[in-house]
Amino acid sequence: MIRTFLILCCFLCIQQDESVMSWNESYKLTWSDFKGPPNKNTSAVAVTASGITFGFSVSKTDDRVVGYTSEVHAHFYPEKSWYKKDEADLHVLGHEQLHFNITELHARKFRQRIDQVKVSNSVRSQLKQLHNTINKELSQMQNTYDSETNYSRNVEAQAKWEAYIAVELKKLSKYKSVD
């Protein structure tokens, strides 16, 4: 007897009617993708809401895990993303695009790590732990990116980050999102 269980774990809570965009190599964000109301009480010019969604299913025979499959997606949430029209420019948009690219980079790292997980009765806990770890790493890199670029104001640091992320995405091209 084979039973399949599906567990969905989301980095951000998604309401069923909320729009979501998947990362796509050939699509770059535009300001029209940022649909949320701007926060006037912050000095931030724009905010990108993105995250990794993850699901997996485990196949069991009796009490033994015999296989698993998984899905990992890098998503952008238009309704939670916003910008201040009077202050935003293409440079800031490039900064926001890189936040989404960093999310994709971590989705690729996650897929790579999932590929290394061996089938066992502890596969559920291993996958959940990997998900928690990758989300922590993603958050840390997003914060470091903002800090080192001074939220896009340091043009030289911004250029370095763009080059770095491009190289890292290329290294993990085998694991890129395909939607």
TrEMBL record:
Top-level taxon: Bacteria
One family name in Pfam for this protein: DUF922
Record's protein name: DUF922 domain-containing protein
Organism: Flavivirga eckloniae
